[in-house]
Amino acid sequence: MTLPLADPPAIPTWRIELPTGLTLMNSNDRPTIRQKARLTKELRTAGKAAAIKAKVPRLERAYITCYLHPNTRGRRDPGNWYPSAKAFLDGVVDAGVLADDDSTHVLGPDMRLGAIIKPRPQLVLVLTDLTQVSAEHLTLLDPLGATA
Fold first, then answer.
1. pTM for this one?
2. Do 79 and 25 form a contact (C-beta atoms < 8 A)?
3. Following DSSP, what letter does each residue of 83-110 receive, concatenated?
4. Which pLDDT value is given to residue 9?
């Protein structure tokens, strides 16, 4: 299947930034249960506040990309920061942007490496309104139709 070459209409997209300086969770970390609970709560609370600050409207379905902006050069596996992205997204749900972060409401989050920022790493979520995406494009993003 190919998409037409004409410029597609703009699809509503929002950017939600966690503040820098938060401690991010990595899949390779081995925190205690209490440490993990504390960090998850901090990221979730910050995610809710960031979503409210970004004034993201309520969305039925969204494609989510999560960008890890490291503070140093070097090789990274952005997927290792998924625990932080999950807590961040839970905060976005708490803010009322999405009804839930299950497969009927969310496609992703897809983890990506972003630009280096100083002095501390940062996570950024980009939400794209899937209700504004053509059926052909949605099929490319979600071939199994989990969000249909």
1. 0.85
2. no
3. HHHHHHHHHHHHTTSSS-SSTTTEEEEE
4. 63
